[in-house]
Task: inverse folding
């Protein structure tokens, strides 16, 4: 058959095909997952220049991110191109590259699938939690050389246009009736006001004072010219912010949506499903999320009631916490004492227990510090090769944080939560794009994934693990644990309530106040956050439940062959992955352990590492 076709094929075409084929083959040969990963990351740095500056990559310091709505299509097409290239090499992926391949593919597909919803929330690029009014420090580059200053002035000069794009995008949201509820944006004008000052006093201007004065490599004669142009650029930038503020007050406020939930948009329920999927990194319906939430709230509430009864308290959760508020055994105003208490918990109580549950624990230093601003109760900032990880604790309102809350928070932010999680990922030698993922939530699901169900699910699982590790030393610490857990469970009910079941804000607040220990003020801010970021707050509890499910499955199937330390290594050593990939990894691991020849030592073996194990055994034999 094929020979007859060939015989009719003109020779010249044959030759051309050969040449083309060779060329193509050459191209294909040069293409590897590494080249795609690298190019993709370079493109992201170019696409998000402020974030590049923040990472210390200065190639695009003269530019700013574009909020132009025409960019949705440009970015989508570019991502589609990357995906095409990736699919073309799918048959040439080695087993050690497989996880990176799956995640890169998931990254591209998540964006492309999400971009169907570009004309929804993503049209609203400023809210009380994120946006160009808050990320101003990221525009500042290192300002040492003449070139640095030129770049910085160029960037400042680009901001007015960037803010025009923001307005145009908001206008499109207004035109399509897909704006925020007022609660998401009401405080933004006051935030912008912070930026509207005398240009000479502006934080945008400060590099032209200090850095420029100290820049020895710039001739003094040129400095005043730079300063003059800098001042003009800062002045223009401030004027542009003022104009956005006026726009928000005069045009946007009157057009904010009246419903709290995004299901009030056309196709809004489907949009909400897409948001949920983006945050959870697997499919789960709003009905299911709500059901799981109610069930979890009921379960944890019962635990709290029983615990309070043991403590001879028969009132509500809030009454319980309030009744302790003047008890100096539980509260302190003394920052040093509080920090010492956290240090004791992490270094003396938690860390000695880790080896029973983890192996090959990376030795990455951790510091515990006072948070420099009045943010959430606690936070973790990642260690780097040069800097330790930092577990920061909010000490601004010490009388809202009893000592017995500290254990759960330490498990979550420090070990075995975010710090240990990050320490394993550091050793994993992840490609750049997986190590540096800029956060952006307003445009979900039209954004590259960042897998918070994995990272936050793990941190919440760590709070649970404290029980198995025997770390909650009394009923008070258990109350602290449940109080943190029930908040995450309530979020499932309230998030779906607001965006899927037409709850209003008051109902959401009442629900949370009924079950949690938090004040009205704190609860209102929480609920405003859920209204602003549909689906985001569900990642924590759902991620944790998924991890517990996977563990249960492995325990059931492996019986005595289940090793908790191996299981935890499997979860942690691959860095952040979508839940669908995590599930696949666990399933493969189960099969692998089932068929594994009995090896003493019980080290982790995944399919792709078989060969290494054999060669290691071989090495042992030689050494012995
Ligand atoms: C397959 O990938 C390897 C490196 O990962 C590369 O050296 C090789 O050229 C690739 N082969 C083809 C046919 O693309
Ligand atoms: C994006 O791709 C589509 C389909 O290939 C094409 O029609 C469109 O012109 C492209 N848009 C841009 C901005 O490149
Ligand atoms: C994207 O959509 C396609 C087609 O519906 C689907 O096969 C794929 O699994 C989706 N990918 C992700 C990451 O959601
Ligand atoms: C956005 O991009 C489109 C197409 O390139 C252009 O016509 C429009 O003027 C841009 N809008 C702004 C505010 O720059
Ligand atoms: C937006 O809402 C208004 C008032 O409810 C309506 O007249 C208009 O048609 C809507 N526009 C779109 C694009 O749905
Ligand atoms: C939105 O909030 C602002 C600030 O609180 C207020 O001035 C404005 O009247 C509100 N607009 C609507 C439509 O509720
Ligand atoms: C910059 O210098 C001027 C003049 O010395 C001073 O008034 C201003 O406060 C300084 N601005 C900043 C932001 O440091
Ligand atoms: C800033 O610009 C405004 C008008 O855009 C002008 O009136 C004002 O003098 C300028 N201020 C400085 C310090 O250049
Ligand atoms: C929204 O729904 C309409 C029909 O109600 C449909 O034609 C349209 O394709 C849907 N849009 C999206 C983005 O799903
Ligand atoms: C709770 O306890 C207090 C005193 O300890 C008692 O007066 C009150 O009746 C109890 N309430 C209930 C509902 O048991
Ligand atoms: C705690 O102390 C404050 C001020 O001393 C007092 O007003 C309040 O009633 C006390 N609360 C409790 C529960 O004892
Ligand atoms: C408050 O909690 C109790 C106990 O679970 C429950 O019976 C009641 O319905 C709840 N109220 C609200 C508003 O959720």
Result:
């Amino acid at each position: 058959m094929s020979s007859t076709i060939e015989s009719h094929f003109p020779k010249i075409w044959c030759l051309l095909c050969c040449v083309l084929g060779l060329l193509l083959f050459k191209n294909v040969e040069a293409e590897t997952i590494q080249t795609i990963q690298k190019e993709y990351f370079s493109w992201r740095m170019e696409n998000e220049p402020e974030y590049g500056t923040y990472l210390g990559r200065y190639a695009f310091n003269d530019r700013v991110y574009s909020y132009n709505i025409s960019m949705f299509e440009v970015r989508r097409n570019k991502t589609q191109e990357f995906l095409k290239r990736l699919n073309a090499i799918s048959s040439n992926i080695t087993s050690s590259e497989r996880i990176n391949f799956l995640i890169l593919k998931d990254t591209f597909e998540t964006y492309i699938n999400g971009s169907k919803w570009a004309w929804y929330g993503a049209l609203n690029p400023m809210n009380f939690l994120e946006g160009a009014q808050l990320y101003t420090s990221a525009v500042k580059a290192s300002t040492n050389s003449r070139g640095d200053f030129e770049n910085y002035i160029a960037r400042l000069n680009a901001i007015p246009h960037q803010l025009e794009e923001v307005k145009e995008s908001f206008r499109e949201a207004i035109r399509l009736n897909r704006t925020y509820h007022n609660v998401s944006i009401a405080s933004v004008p006051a935030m912008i006001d912070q930026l509207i000052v005398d240009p000479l006093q502006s934080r945008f201007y400060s590099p032209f004072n200090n850095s420029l004065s100290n820049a020895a490599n710039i001739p003094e004669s040129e400095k005043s010219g730079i300063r003059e142009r800098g001042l003009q650029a800062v002045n223009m930038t401030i004027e542009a912010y003022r104009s956005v503020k006026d726009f928000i007050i005069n045009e946007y406020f009157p057009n904010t949506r009246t419903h709290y939930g995004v299901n009030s948009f056309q196709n809004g329920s489907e949009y909400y499903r897409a948001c949920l999927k983006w945050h959870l990194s697997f499919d789960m319906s709003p009905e299911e999320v709500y059901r799981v939430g109610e069930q979890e709230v009921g379960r944890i509430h019962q635990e709290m009631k029983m615990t309070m009864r043991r403590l001879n308290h028969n009132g509500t959760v809030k009454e319980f916490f309030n009744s302790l508020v003047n008890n100096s055994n539980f509260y302190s105003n003394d920052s040093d004492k509080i920090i010492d208490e956290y240090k004791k918990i992490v270094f003396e109580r938690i860390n000695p227990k880790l080896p029973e549950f983890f192996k090959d624990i990376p030795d990455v230093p951790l510091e515990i510090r006072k948070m420099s601003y009045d943010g959430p109760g606690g936070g973790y900032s990642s260690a780097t090769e040069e800097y330790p990880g930092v577990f920061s604790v909010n000490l601004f309102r010490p009388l809202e944080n009893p000592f017995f809350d500290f254990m759960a928070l330490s498990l979550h932010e420090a070990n075995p939560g975010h710090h240990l999680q990050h320490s394993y990922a550091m050793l994993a030698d992840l490609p750049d794009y997986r190590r540096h993922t800029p956060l952006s939530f307003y445009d979900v699901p039209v954004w590259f994934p960042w897998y918070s169900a994995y990272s936050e699910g793990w941190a919440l699982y760590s709070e649970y693990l404290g029980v198995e590790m025997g770390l909650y030393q009394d009923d008070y610490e258990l109350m602290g644990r449940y109080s943190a857990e029930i908040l995450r469970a309530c979020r499932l009910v309230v998030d779906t309530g607001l965006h899927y079941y037409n709850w209003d804000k008051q109902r959401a607040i009442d629900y949370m106040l009924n079950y949690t220990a938090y004040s009205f003020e704190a609860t209102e801010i929480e609920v405003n956050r859920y209204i602003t970021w549909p689906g985001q707050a569900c990642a924590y509890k759902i991620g944790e439940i998924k991890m517990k499910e996977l563990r249960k499955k492995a325990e059931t199937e492996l019986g005595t062959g289940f090793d908790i330390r191996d299981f935890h290594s499997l979860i942690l050593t691959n860095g952040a992955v979508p839940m669908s990939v995590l599930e696949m990894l666990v399933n493969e691991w189960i099969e692998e352990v089932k068929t594994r020849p009995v090896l003493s030592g019980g080290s982790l073996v995944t399919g792709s590492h078989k060969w290494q194990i054999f060669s290691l055994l071989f090495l042992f034999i030689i050494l012995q």
